[in-house]
Specification:
The protein is an alpha/beta fold. The protein has eleven helices and twelve strands. A twelve-stranded mixed beta sheet has the order 7-8-9-6-5-4-3-2-1-10-11-12. Strand 1, helix 1 and strand 2 form a beta-alpha-beta unit. It starts with 12 loop residues before the first strand and ends with a helix. It binds S-adenosylmethionine and iron/sulfur cluster.
Length: 328
């Protein structure tokens, strides 16, 4: 039994949001006053998340990304990671984090063989960082960056390219990869911010970001990426690290998508851009057994939309919910 959609795409990757809460208020992700967080009992419990992941792993999911909200805001998150690490069907456990709360956990993450950490950093300048995140956590996040870089964990930096805010730092970010073995990934900004489309000076999409970089360097090498990679990847010759551009909004990567998402409240999403297909938390709480769950996952994945544009067109409401509720 496996998860196969009608376009022949095999689903092997789960993105699981462990919470909708966050200690930051990034301006591209949520409004200054935050979003309405749900009651604790509406969140999936760790036990439920463990079970969902186990059942999905029996259907071929071998990679899980834990995200949120900020995953480390949820109490006992590291214990949850430990229990997931006992599932030997999972080849990779990855985490996306803002890094403000994790410096004390890095040894444990190494011990648990966490495969990679995506650290979100949108500016290398303290004041600008505070403006973007609306919190004063620059020093803590950069301490985490330093510790992660020295650790055995694979490190990727996530940079949301924001017109009028950090486009002047694109080259500074790439220069970090000169001496550091990191992957810097530039992400197109999407209207998942709790209010919808934002007024921007210029649209910085995949092509514009890449052209800007190509204009700066005489040569860039294109790297071979995994078929299901979310980014197109490159390297400046002789630099230790690499960089990538993620066409999250122009959606150039749907053809080989291998991902599904489950939000912190248990909403199953076949695509980042769909409005959610069914609530797996409610299904479990009504007494579904593992076979019921498997049947539901298999039939739902079969109807995965061909691409993010079709998923968006079929939504009842416009794209505007905060990324912190979806799980980025
Ligand atoms: N709090 C963690 C963090 O910031 O890394 C994990 C959750 S966050 C929602 C996951 C990723 O989504 C982050 O890299 C963040 O920068 C990105 N993100 C959030 N809102 C976005 C938006 N509107 N457009 C593009 N990326 C976004
Ligand atoms: Fe929080 Fe991550 Fe959203 Fe920033 S991007 S507000 S850190 S969930």
């Amino acid at each position: 039994m496996e998860l196969l959609d009608k376009f022949g795409r095999k689903i092997t990757y789960l993105r699981l949001a462990v919470t909708d809460r966050c200690n930051l208020r990034c301006q591209y992700c949520m409004p200054a006053q935050g979003i309405d967080i749900v009651d604790r009992k509406e969140l999936l419990s760790y036990k439920e998340m463990y079970r969902i992941t186990r059942v999905l792993s029996e259907l071929g999911v071998n990679k899980v990304r834990l995200t949120g909200g900020e995953p480390f805001v949820r109490k006992d998150f590291v214990n949850f990671l430990e229990s997931l690490s006992f599932n030997d069907k999972l080849e990779e456990i990855n985490i996306t984090t803002n890094g403000a709360l994790i410096s004390n956990h890095i040894n444990k993450l190494e011990e648990l063989n966490i495969h990679s950490i995506n650290l979100s950093i949108d500016s290398l300048q303290k004041e600008k960082f505070a403006k973007i995140t609306r919190r004063d956590v620059f020093d803590g996040v950069f301490n985490t960056f330093d510790l992660l870089e020295k650790s055995n964990l694979k490190l990727k930096l996530n940079v949301v390219v924001q017109s009028g805010f950090n486009t002047d730092e694109i080259i500074d970010f790439i220069e970090l990869s000169k001496e550091k073995e990191i992957e810097v990934r530039f992400i197109e900004e999407m209207p998942f911010n709790g209010s919808g489309k934002r007024n921007v000076e210029e649209v910085w999409n995949f092509n514009k970001i890449l052209d800007y970089i190509k204009n700066h360097y005489p040569t860039i090498e294109e790297l071979n990426s995994k078929k299901s990679s979310t980014s197109y990847n490159y390297k400046i010759p002789n630099y230790k690290g690499s960089f990538g551009v993620i066409p999250s909004y122009t959606r150039l990567i749907c053809k080989d998508c291998n991902r599904i998402r489950i939000t912190a409240t248990g909403l199953f999403k076949n695509c980042l851009f769909d409005g959610g297909v069914f609530n797996v938390r409610d299904f479990i709480r009504k007494g579904a057994n593992d076979d019921d769950l498997k049947e539901l996952f298999i039939s739902t994945v079969h109807h995965k939309p061909e691409n993010g544009f079709i998923a968006e067109a079929n939504r009842a409401t416009n794209v505007s919910e905060s990324m912190s509720t979806i799980g980025g």
